[in-house]
Design a protein that fits this description.
4 domains; alpha+beta; 6-stranded mixed β-barrel; homodimer; Immunoglobulin-like; 17 helices
């Protein structure tokens, strides 16, 4: 019996409540204004305007990315999650209005895509799955419809997307007259699983299974559809309008070919994570979902291989993925550059989606570890503390002398200032929906196991062991390692409580009602307590949280001789505003203790670290190269949580610091 | 009175004789075959074929770069230098045939450019100086004409280029009816100085002065000519044919704008080396030349500022320049990435040209130091020991895990295998002409000073102090620091001998006829002996040549905590075939001595270094990130000269190695 996340978890802990409040009160209103082109000085979204044009309510031309609809869908989805705990009549009314607008855009046959409705004749639909994101946008609409119905009980959007999904189900598949296509950007697969779960309709799951298993097979659908486009009566508007990456086949998809879309070989044969990292995580998440529900062992084997490939060699310490900007994509194992990488916010968000689904078969602490690494580091680093500024790229290091570099035509530059919006603005809403649904990652359960994956203060209730149980969790994370669960079954009942022991925990101690549970090492990353639980039973987990010096495998060339600081799940960095410029000249003395102090005045309240080290010095007129031994002076080093960088002053930043042990 | 290089220096030393022989016997014949499309498996040059088409002797279309003529010109120039010491009837006949062909291509008015002659109507000439390299190609033809006449006494090519230069002189300038243009790629400026010197015609020098001082002034000529192109009867064939970098003004020239061409501001106001590094060195070399001959103090001040900017912050240890691939260009000071850089072979060759010209006013050891750094490192690294394989990009490090990265559309990848030719094959001939003219960098003189800049075994003669003097130099460089000059004046005469003391020299000892000359510190980088010299006088300079551990300024972020090894002028590197893979896992113990041994069996005979260090180790199943202290084992480290890497097996390479002092 698969595990399921609990549907009714209320977040009570300070850290995530602060973020959820920020999303409810600032992020979502700001994003709504941005989508409605009401924010000055940012790239116009035009997303809502596109829908109005598509509905025939205003005159105008489509503008923005071909997948601009998805921004609206993701905003509705994020709002749905937020409304569940934080009712907000204004936000709900705005969501309802957008849903009504989507209803007016929807065509009689169910089709719903503003780009195609506005710019292309009907017969051009579905003719460029590789590039034009129709199925991707549909997926986001479906996720929004499912989430909005669950949160508000309002079925309008769900009805819309069911009608659209039915059109898609008729259009695609291996049946006679159907198109043998699949999306260039995965997303609809996992959305269809959610729709199947919400409606009980097996055919959506079957369609997701079809999309997954058809992917990358020969003859290649993207080749066939390209040939078919030549016979269209009206040449489709090309997208991207100018993409020099595609001037010839050699350069197609930034030189990645169909690996960019994880469609270079049949999905069932894949074992190396390649291509666009966001696409990858959505695809792999769906594969885990579909494997679980269909029992397709080949699908599960493929996604297990891909998981190992990412986690063992392609994952940044901050849970960033995507080692290169071209194609926003994976590269070879152990290629983890600190500055030239991509580490898109969306990719780390997608990693959370994927990891959560990996763990539904059986608890494995590793999945929760990765989720934890992501939610406290490389995802929320994408959001400024003001709620209105974003990183698309999350560098592991920013060096001032690099600022003058010109990058390639299609290559984005890591920045040390967050932006208020993007021409392609996928990340802001993606992060909003992750934060507003953070409750989904805390618990899983079946009818005999309560699995606690994340230590986030919260309350919930569930039916387990034949009884109803109330659960109240208190947690000091991410700043303190004390976790306390109070269980209140309606009557005494036997079931198991699984408690993930994070990989960073030092000397974890488990106790029940004050009595330490001896039990040795965690199994599969969990401590398990199976007993008959009674009202008021308390489980406590004390996770030692020393400051850790993290070292990368010797195969990661950039980080040799360096360490990163981590405390609990939080990865730290040095910022110029605390430590002066030329951060590369700083080395840590890793033989000296590092002190940790919670500072409520700093960055909204964080534990900052103080370490001892050295700073290399040189005379003002030092030559570029010299033969003299290095000179250094003792230096106090201040480190702050990585996620909170770039909230004070724009300067240098560095996660990996030279380790000089006790000095040279 | 300016210094002049000596025209008749014969190389006798083993190191450079080997290279000159390689050029004469392998490189030039191979390149001739390549230019004539007679080598299988390489990108066709079409350079000679273009000339035949332009001469109307065969049918066909122009192919190759718009500046393909320059490859032929540089081959003739390199051959000219080679013929002087190594007569070769076959090479000379081939050169004569190419010159005859150029004569048949030349138009009645003197114009000579196969691209325009073949592809464009006459009225389109000179209409895209920014991109189309007519003046650049003319410059290379002029250099070839001057060099070939000097080497062989044959004036045919000189006559051709004089006629062409006269056309250019009539076409460009500030006079009525003249075009106020200047080249997008500098080169003709320094060529015109050589032509002025060779012919005694002041007008060529004036034209060079005009090109330099007009450069970057307002209104901007590149803007004006772009507007003018709109009114041409026939739209010019665009070049490059597809250059996505130029789709809009923001991306013009890889985002560098006119800084790419060092034309972003008036040349006389420039103080920061920007843009395409090869263009820069040719331009700055010309500025030094023209300043010397015209006495234009503003020109000299500008080029002095640019020199400091490059040498103090933009120069790699190997004498590479150009920190980024986009625009093959300079970036900000201290931005010296080891892997993503360009360090084009041509740019280091151009740096030699520039540095030599900087020193003509007064001896300054720094110029000779830079030439030495270039000729023993980042130039000849561009040529395989087989004489038929080339590097365009000279990385400071090559890491295996990077091999899977996709780069941008217009971004070249550093490689660890030399190629046999390039679509844009400027570097092979440029390096050939530097090697075959290496004699020009050994000495400078005026009528009272003999300046010895490079310690290269050689013989020469000159008139100095009113007498004729024979000079015979013996030198152990680059492997040993013993230098011996025997002077044979026709009768005793007083003059000064200046001997550069290289920056790397340890406890240099100067002696004359066996008696040590006490004299303290070098002045301007030279020891000077002024005396009355008699037949058979011997000057000896003993340059201590310990292995140096080089450290970069604390402002060079990539090299903090690292050292490079240098012995004499030779910069060393580690290669995988000597040290195993994952070179980043190796650290040096810089407290232990490094041993140097000449190995005649290795890489054509080199001094290899053996150092002590450690290699970090980890279990086979080590996680990507861990909290354990590092484990390492002692390692013997072998270093070879940087220039000689990539001649055995394709693998990792690294110049900058972690310095762990005596360990952690």
């Amino acid at each position: 019996m698969p595990l399921r996340p609990l549907p009714d978890v209320a977040i009570t802990g300070a850290f995530w409540n602060t973020y959820k409040e920020l999303v409810a009160e600032k992020v979502l209103p700001y994003q709504w204004s941005a989508l409605n082109d009401q924010v000055a000085g940012i790239p116009p979204s035009h997303a809502v305007e596109n829908l109005r044009i598509a509905a025939g309510e205003v005159e105008g031309e489509f503008a923005g990315m071909v997948f601009q609809d998805s921004d609206v869908a993701k905003w509705i989805e994020a709002t749905a999650y937020s409304l569940r705990e934080r009712p907000d009549p204004v936000l709900e009314e705005r969501a309802d209005e957008l849903i009504a607008l989507l209803g007016r855009v929807q065509q009689p046959d169910g089709y719903l895509n503003s780009f195609y409705i506005v710019t292309e004749p009907v017969e051009n639909r579905w003719n460029n799955l590789r590039d034009c994101h129709e199925l991707y946008c549909a997926g986001h609409l479906i996720e929004a419809g499912v989430a909005y119905a669950a949160a508000t009980g309002k079925r309008r959007l769900l009805d819309i997307v069911v009608k659209y999904a039915d059109l898609i189900d008729r259009t695609f598949g291996r049946g006679p007259g159907q198109r043998r296509g699949y999306p260039g950007h995965p997303e609809i697969e996992l959305a269809l699983v959610r729709l199947a779960d919400a409606t009980g309709e097996q055919r959506y799951l079957d369609l997701a299974h079809y999309f997954l298993t058809e992917r990358g097979t020969a003859p290649h659908y993207f080749d066939l559809e390209e040939e078919a486009r030549a016979s269209l009566a009206q040449t489709p508007r090309s997208f991207p309008v100018i993409n020099p990456a595609d001037v010839d086949r050699e350069h197609l998809n930034y030189g990645l070919g169909y690996a960019f879309q994880q469609a270079h070989e049949p999905f069932l044969e894949q074992s190396s994570a390649v291509g666009h990292a966001v696409r990858a995580t959505y695809l792999y998440a769906a594969a885990a979902d579909v494997a679980l529900r269909t029992g397709d062992e080949r699908l599960r084997a493929a996604v297990d291989r891909l998981w190992r490939d990412v986690v063992d060699g392609k994952l940044y310490l901050t849970a960033g993925i995507g080692s290169q900007v071209p194609g926003e994509s994976f590269t070879d194992p152990y290629d983890l550059p600190n500055e030239g990488m991509y580490c898109e916010t969306c990719a780390s968000v997608g990693l959370v989606f994927w990891a959560a689904r990996m763990g539904r078969v059986a608890p494995q602490g590793e999945y929760g570890d990765v989720i934890e690494r992501a939610i406290y580091n490389g995802t929320i680093s994408g959001l400024g503390l003001d709620g209105e500024s974003y990183f698309y790229i999350n560098p592991q290091q920013y060096t001032a002398s690099m600022a003058g570099r010109q990058l390639g035509w299609d290559i984005s530059r890591p920045d040390n200032r967050r932006q208020n919006w993007f021409t392609c603005s996928c990340c802001p809403m993606n992060l909003a929906r992750m934060i507003s649904s953070i409750d989904q990652y805390v618990y899983q359960a079946d009818d005999r196991r309560l699995v606690v994956d994340q230590y986030i203060g919260s309350t919930t209730s569930l039916r387990i062991g034949g009884v109803d149980v109330e659960v109240a969790q208190e947690s000091g994370l991410p700043w303190a390692g004390d976790v306390r669960l109070r269980l209140t079954p309606s009557s005494p009942a036997e079931f198991a409580v699984w408690l993930r022991v994070p990989q960073w925990a030092d000397e974890p101690t488990l106790s029940v009602n004050g009595a330490v549970v001896e039990g040795g090492e965690p199994v599969d990353g969990y401590r398990v307590v199976t007993r008959t639980w009674s009202e008021g039973d308390v489980v406590e987990l004390r996770l030692g949280m020393p400051v850790r010096t993290v070292r990368a495998s010797t195969r990661v060339s950039e980080n040799q001789g360096k360490v990163a600081l981590q405390r609990g799940p939080v990865v730290y960095c040095l910022e110029e505003c605390d430590n002066g410029g030329d951060l590369a000249a700083i080395a840590l003395d890793t033989t000296r203790p590092v002190t940790a102090e919670f500072r409520s005045d700093l960055l909204g309240g964080v534990v900052a670290l103080r370490a001892e080290g050295w700073r290399e010095t040189e005379p003002q007129d030092a030559p570029l190269y010299g033969f003299d031994p290095p000179r250094s002076e003792p230096a106090q080093v201040t480190a702050i949580p990585y996620y909170s960088w770039a909230n004070r002053a724009a300067g240098e930043m560095r996660v990996w610091i030279r380790d000089e042990g006790a000095g040279r």
